[in-house]
Amino acid sequence: MNKSQLIEALAKAENLALKKAEEIVNTVFGDMETALIDGQRVEIRGFGSFKIKHYQGYKGRNPKTGEVINVAEKKLPFFKVGKELKERVDM
Length: 91
Fold this sequence. Notes:
Blueprint: H1 3-14, H2 18-37, E1 42-44, E2 48-55, E3 58-61, E4 68-71, E5 74-81, H3 83-89
Antiparallel strand pairs: 1-2, 2-5, 3-4
Helix pairs in contact: 1-2
């Protein structure tokens, strides 16, 4: 399911106009994004949680040339599936 399919499903399930459903989905995702940018954890009970993981920099190699390169430290979003969702999917 992609974002537009989610919007259509919400509009159909709640008998909303597509514009209103799109506004709701964009608000939810926008607020989740803002929370992650601010370093907060986002938890949706029964589904899972999102947090930012910090990765240290390291020395890597260019696979084509073999040249040693420095890979900068970075922060990436990480999703951990909730127990209930894991159990429902693994049936």
